[in-house]
Amino acid sequence: MKYYHFQKAHFVIGICKDKDHQKMLKMLFDLPYTKVYLTETTLKVLPINDYGENYISKAKYATANQIDALDKAIENSSEDDLVIVTGSLYLVGKIYSQV
Starting at the edge strand that comes first in sequence, how are the strands of the sheet with 82-86 ordered? Predict the structure, then answer.
């Protein structure tokens, strides 16, 4: 990300249930100028409620619907911002196939 010039980064993230979601989310939420949009993956699903109230309340938006999460990130971003889909390649593939 150091090669990109941006004001804010908007992360749409869905994490598989077999990954350390607490560690991954802590790293994202600790980044400056970052907004996080929680969603679910399409396989090995970690349900939204399993992310924990702490992270759900910190998130800019949380939904099981991946496209809604992406739409909300785009809606809240400006032309000087980055919108990044991450966490699971299942999620990235789903988003990529829909846009």
Answer: 61-62, 34-39, 9-14, 82-86
Write the CB contacts of 4 (distance below 8 Å, at least 6 apart in sequence).
Answer: 82
Which three-class secondary structure state does DSSP give residue 66?
helix
Q: Reduced to 3 states, what is the DSSP secondary structure of residue 20? A: coil
pLDDT tens for the chain, 99 residues long, are 778 889 999 999 999 999 999 999 999 999 989 999 999 998 999 999 999 999 999 999 999 999 999 999 999 999 999 999 998 988 999 898 887
Q: In this structure, are residues 19 and 45 in contact, taking their beta carbons and an 8 Å threshold? A: no
The beta strand positions in the chain, using DSSP E, are 9-14, 34-39, 61-62, 82-86
Count CA atoms within 13 Å of residue 98 on its CB side. Answer: 15
